[in-house]
Amino acid sequence: MQSSNGRSHARVRYDDPWYDALASGWGEADAAADAVPEAREEGARAAADIYLEVQRSAAFQEVRSRYRRFVVPAVIGFLAWYLAYVVAATIAPGLMARPVAGAVNVAMLAGLGQFLSTFLLTWAYARHARLRRDRAALDLRWDTQELTRCARGGHR
Q1: What pTM was estimated for this model as a whole?
Q2: What's the CA gap between 24 and 112, in Å, rounded?
Q3: FRET pair for 154, CA 20 to 30 Å: which of 44, 89, 102, 135?
Q4: Of 148, 156, 150, nearest to 48 (Cα)?
């Protein structure tokens, strides 16, 4: 390819597994022209096998288990807290109307507690993900990208 100043532009190939030309919006037409349909199908089958292998791996199962051990109790706890607030507002309006300080009553504090608990749960989830899952998930992603690159005929 020649530019306006006469220099030729070589096609750049990234060996970084985090780079995905199609996801970035560049190279859609180039990718379709470069690959032969049979080669694309073989690469897709090889990639599917790799992803299934990774999904069955102990490392992947551990990441999923850590995720579930946090999320399931957190969702149950948050839903119970929310439902208790709604039920109390419906069944016990006298309790919810009880003044705490000036014009602030129990219902207002419980409603603000809903916001506070949402922020705390978000913070706890982000912290849990950062400390217990992100590194293992990134390692899995890197290994998967390396395996798919090798399956497509790339260099390791």
Answers
A1: 0.60
A2: 41
A3: 135
A4: 148
| Cα-based distances in Å from 43 to 35, 49, 108 | 10, 10, 58
Rounded Cα gap, residues 88 and 53, in angstroms: 49
pLDDT digit string (tens) for 28-69? 454 444 554 555 556 666 777 888 888 888 888 888 999 999
Identity of the residue numbered 126:
A
- Three-class secondary structure assignment of the chain: CECCCCCECCCCCCCCCCCCHHHHCCCHHHHHHHCCHHHHHHHHHHHHHHHHHHHHCHHHHHHHHHHHHHHHHHHHHHHHHHHHHHHHHHHCHHHHCCEEECCEEHHHHHHHHHHHHHHHHHHHHHHHHHHHHHHHHHHHHHHHHHHHHHHCCCCC
Whole-number Å distance between alpha carbons of 127 and 66: 13
C-alpha span between 74 and 84 (Å, rounded): 15
Query: Residue 140: pLDDT band by 50, 70, 90 thresholds?
Result: confident
Cα dist. 73→43, 51, 68 in Å? 40, 29, 8
In this structure, which amino acid lies at residue 52? L
